[in-house]
């Protein structure tokens, strides 16, 4: 594993079982690393396998093949020592699009936020903990007044922000966010993305950001990976990817980004990419420094 990487994914493959004999490939032969302190974005159409990658990274899904390391821990190993598992629980956090639904309805917001801190021994005294809670609620634009509320008394957007605050409070080394803001109002989305950027610069955590919104990814991420049909087809520094997309799917995806000028928007044609019917050979190739693309050769 390269020294500056916190995460390494090698040949990750995952299939979803439909029936005893039927499988659908969800992720096929995906490899990439996430460097210490970088923000890596993953984009791609619905069903391209982004969440499956995130779930494998969190250890929620066991991949069918391939390996994943988080720091020096092989999380795909058959048995992970208890100390390593505890360390992962503390240092690795995920925010889902619908994290809000996982909040325990019987607990107050105060308890929801403070319990993980207590379990992992991160919190110091009670007063210090309360100060941390209020500070993190402030980060996500929530008032200390909701500490005594229960999830059912909050709006969906407020609940999602409580989940984001809960993940950030742990000061994770690795934060994975799977469409964390898709369910929020546009004005709050911008606030949360700014917050992610600010906190990431301040604390330097390593961040995997999965999103549909290409403009948001361009704004936030250092590098971006593009997935389609379970494969990673391109990976490059953000500027290089947005300025010189190479894979036809990436080009089609970026061409679908709305253009702010309505006159241009009305007149342009959207590129469409179709996967070659039969691929004879695939090769993950570095075309420029740090710019990788999956070259595909068809039979004809
Ligand atoms: N519970 C499930 N049962 C069957 N197939 C599933 C299930 N969940 C996902 N899939 C399939 O697995 C593949 C990858 O899905 P995944 O959720 O990883 O995609 P995604 O990129 O996260 O999509 P989205 O942008 O919609 O969140 C898709 O083909 C999807 O249809
Ligand atoms: Mg998803």
Briefly summarize what is shown.
With 300 residues, the protein is α/β, with parallel strands linked by helices. It has helices spanning 50-57, 82-91, 109-119, 126-139, 156-169, 186-203, 214-220, 238-243, 248-255, 262-267; strands at residues 5-17, 23-35, 39-44, 65-70, 73-74, 92-96, 174-178, 206-210, 223-228, 231-237, 279-288, 291-298.
Give short descriptive properties of this protein.
single chain; alpha/beta; Rossmann fold; 12 strands; binds adenosine-5'-triphosphate; binds magnesium ion
Number of helices: 10
Helix content: 25-40%
Which strands sit side by side, in order, in the main sheet? Answer: 6-7-8-3-9-10-12-11
What is the radius of gyration computed over CA atoms, rounded to a whole number of angstroms? 20 Å
Distance from first to last alpha carbon: 37 Å
Please explain how this structure is put together:
It is a single chain. This protein is an alpha/beta fold and 300 residues long. The chain has 2 domains: 5-221, P-loop containing nucleotide triphosphate hydrolases (Rossmann fold), CATH 3.40.50.300; 237-300, no CATH class. The chain is built from 10 helices and 12 strands. The chain has an 8-stranded mixed β-sheet, with helices on both faces. A 4-stranded antiparallel β-sheet has the order 2-1-4-5, with helices on one face. α3 runs parallel beside α5 (156-169) and α4 crosses α5. The radius of gyration is 20 Å and the shape is globular. Magnesium ion (MG) binds at residues 50-51, 178. Magnesium ion (MG) is lined by residues 50-51, 178.
């Amino acid at each position: 594993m390269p020294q500056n990487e916190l995460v390494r994914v090698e040949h990750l493959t995952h299939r979803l079982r439909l029936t005893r004999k039927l499988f659908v490939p969800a992720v096929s032969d995906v490899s990439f690393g996430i460097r210490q302190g970088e923000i890596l974005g993953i984009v791609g159409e619905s069903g391209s396998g982004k969440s499956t990658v995130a779930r494998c990274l969190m250890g929620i899904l066991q991949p069918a093949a391939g390996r994943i390391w988080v720091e020096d821990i092989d999380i795909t190993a058959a048995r992970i020592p208890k100390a390593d598992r505890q360390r992962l629980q503390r240092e690795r956090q995920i925010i889902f699009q619908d994290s809000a639904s996982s909040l325990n309805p019987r607990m107050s917001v105060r308890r929801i936020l403070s319990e993980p801190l207590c379990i992992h021994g991160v919190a110091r005294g009670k007063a210090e903990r309360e100060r941390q809670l209020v500070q993190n609620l402030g980060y996500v634009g929530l008032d200390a007044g909701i500490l005594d509320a229960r999830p059912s008394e909050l709006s969906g957007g407020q609940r999602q922000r409580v989940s984001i605050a809960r993940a950030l409070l742990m000061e994770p080394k690795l934060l994975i966010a799977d469409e964390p803001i898709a369910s929020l109002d546009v004005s709050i989305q911008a606030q949360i993305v700014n917050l992610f950027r600010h906190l990431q610069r301040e604390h330097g955590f390593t961040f995997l950001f999965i999103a549909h919104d290409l403009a948001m990814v361009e704004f936030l991420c250092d590098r971006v990976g593009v997935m389609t049909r379970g494969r990673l087809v391109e990976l490059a520094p953000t500027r290089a990817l947005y300025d010189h997309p190479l894979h036809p799917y990436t080009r089609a995806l970026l061409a679908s980004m709305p253009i702010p000028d309505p006159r241009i928007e009305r007149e342009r044609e959207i590129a469409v990419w179709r996967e070659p019917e039969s691929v004879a050979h695939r090769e993950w190739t570095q075309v420029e420094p740090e710019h990788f693309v999956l070259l595909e050769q068809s039979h004809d």
